[in-house]
Design goal:
single chain; about 450 residues; alpha/beta; Rossmann fold; 3 domains; four-stranded antiparallel sheet; 18 strands; binds adenosine-5'-triphosphate; ATP binding; Mitochondrial_chaperone_BCS1
């Protein structure tokens, strides 16, 4: 009944009163915006799950995707939770409405509502939204299935397609199952943690956010198991790079560029990948060394080591360029792991300080490693023969964790028999030499 000017004025006055007396402001985050999915809705859902905020709700929804082992918890419709961000309170409510569709059916319409105090608006935007996205991405990454890639024989380097083939990666090795000196394991975990959390640090000091590990030790000392444990710890994909399948530095570059962030690139048995491992012997013995080097090789920073691929060559400098050269800008959050059984045969260029950040010595079984294996395989914490085992291991019995594991698996139903068998095995392997069997097992490469 009132003229439009008066209703407008009243509306404005009401809004002003509302603004003055109601100190809160709410934001609606619907699941769909038109026909496209609203990313923010998904992010909020994952963020609330990642922060374990759903725990305080009375009703939650449990989901598990087919073939997955992970269960996720989300807020049921009508449920509300509160969280605090830098002193600001945020009230989250999840709403689910049944919506009639034109075809007569009905579909749920979901949305999150975020209520905050007006005075906290500047605190929330955009910092809190960034945190939500980051938490969501990290949570999604942690809970997805991991992949193991290998570079395929059918790779088409001309089109850049099918360079990698992936399979699901489900390896049971973890830091709890790795038999190794506890302090050494702790150092590796601490290094990984520092690396993963070091985004700002690497940015500040102007280094690519990458890390290089060299795992060395005899066959059966657990190098592959360690890689799997690292991958499981970080929940990162693994790229198993077969160097002989790439013919040149250019192909290698293509392969490396196609690896994704948060991944581990592994080159196993790097001494075997090389046509000639030791550059000193190589220079005289290698037939190709007698051919004049190409301009690319001449310009290479590390001319020593080359890998014979399918009729072509990959230089060590080409490989290392990805870690610390110009190509290193391609992608972040990569861990490059080389393994070798013969560290003494590796090119000095690879071992030079600053190249591989961490040298990890996977050694013969120490007593601590032995105890881890026996505990894991037999659930046995101590045994009357343990002092004898300790004495044998300390006096030079060189047994690898793989050998110990094998005996433990074979005799898992006879605890005493298993330990006795191990003692006999070690007695056979005891060496008279007083050489130090467990040298410094882990060292950080000196800083550049
Ligand atoms: N340190 C270890 N801790 C726990 N288990 C180990 C360890 N080392 C070896 N094993 C056991 O022995 C098996 C073989 O070990 P693994 O393949 O990891 O050794 P490796 O050093 O990579 O050997 P290679 O040099 O021959 O590839 C593993 O599947 C695991 O069961």
């Amino acid at each position: 009944l009132l003229p439009a000017e008066i209703t407008d004025a009243l509306n404005r006055a009401l809004r002003l009163l509302n603004w003055y007396f109601v100190p809160y402001v709410a934001f609606e985050i619907p699941e769909f915006e038109g026909s496209s999915i609203n990313e923010l809705y998904k992010n909020v859902q994952l963020h609330l799950t990642a922060r374990d905020l759903c725990r305080s709700a009375r009703k939650t929804v449990l989901c598990r995707v087919k073939n997955s082992t992970n269960t996720t918890t989300t807020l049921a419709g009508g449920e509300a939770v509160v969280e605090t961000f830098e002193g600001a309170k945020i009230w989250w409510t999840h709403t689910v409405h049944g919506h009639k569709q034109s075809d007569g059916g009905s579909q749920d319409q979901r949305s999150y509502s975020m209520k905050i105090h007006k005075r906290d608006r500047d605190k929330i935007f955009p910092a809190y939204l960034d945190v939500i996205r980051e938490n969501a991405v990290n949570f999604q990454h942690k809970n997805r299935e991991m992949l193991l890639y290998s570079n395929s024989k059918s790779a088409s380097f001309s089109t850049g397609r099918h360079l990698w083939q992936a399979v699901h990666f489900k390896h049971p090795s973890t830091f709890d199952t790795i038999a190794m000196e506890p302090s050494q394991l702790q150092s590796i975990k601490a290094d990984l943690d520092a690396f993963v959390a070091g985004k700002e640090y690497f940015q500040r000091v102007g280094r690519p956010w990458k890390r290089g590990y060299l795992l060395y030790g005899p066959a059966g000392s657990g190098k592959s198991s360690m890689i799997a444990a690292i991958a499981n710890y970080l929940k990162w994909d693994v790229y198993d790079l077969e160097l002989t399948q790439a013919r040149s530095n250019a192909e290698l570059k293509q392969l490396l560029i196609q690896t994704t962030n948060k991944s581990i690139i592994v080159i196993e048995d790097i001494d075997c990948s090389a046509s000639l491992a030791n550059p000193r012997s190589r220079r005289t013995a290698s037939p190709w060394c007698e051919t004049p080097p190409s301009s690319e090789e001449e310009g290479a920073a590390e001319p020593g080591m080359r890998f014979e691929g399918n009729g072509g060559r990959i230089t060590l400098s080409g490989l290392l360029n990805f870690t610390d050269g110009l190509w290193s800008c391609c992608g972040n959050e990569r861990i490059l792991i080389f393994t070798t059984n013969h560290v003494e045969e590796l090119d000095d260029a690879l071992l030079r300080p600053g190249r591989m950040d961490l040298h990890i010595h996977m050694s013969y079984c120490s007593f601590a490693a032995f105890k881890t294996l026996v505990l894991n395989y037999l659930l046995l914490e101590s045994h009357i023969l343990f002092p004898k085992v300790e004495k044998l291991l300390c006096s030079g019995a060189r047994v690898t964790p793989a050998q110990v594991s094998e005996i433990l698996i074979q005799s898992r139903d006879d605890l005493d028999g298993a330990v006795q068998k191990l003692v006999s095995f070690m007695e056979h392997r005891t060496m008279s030499s007083s050489a130090k069997i467990f040298p410094e097992t882990l060292h950080h490469a000196p800083k550049k």
